[in-house]
Design goal:
This protein is an all-alpha fold. 76% of the residues lie in helices and 0% in strands. It is built from six helices and no strands.
Length: 117
Amino acid sequence: MLTRLGGTLAPLALVSVGLQLRLGLLPGNRVPLAMGLGYKLVLAPLLMMLVYVGAMGLGGTTTQVTLFEAAMAPQVGASIVAIQYGLDAQLISLMVGVGTVLSFMTLPIWWSVFSAI
């Protein structure tokens, strides 16, 4: 019974964030959205790669997977927690929704970079 109940968590989380997504709010949130997604999808994986590969000299499958996970779109679970603590729900929903779509473009690029490690 608990397994079936637990199986509803991910769909409910996606629906709760998706219901708050308003693409009409995109023009008013362009700068914070670009800064947040630029950091999450580009800068953070790059900095982690510099630390892991450049400074620590690590490589291999574990490093590739770790870096690939860092390059993924913002988490739905983290967004729910942020919304519960009173942060900007509209911006957070935009970050998750737009970030998920953009990550379909950035992840193949990152994978080709990480595969060379």
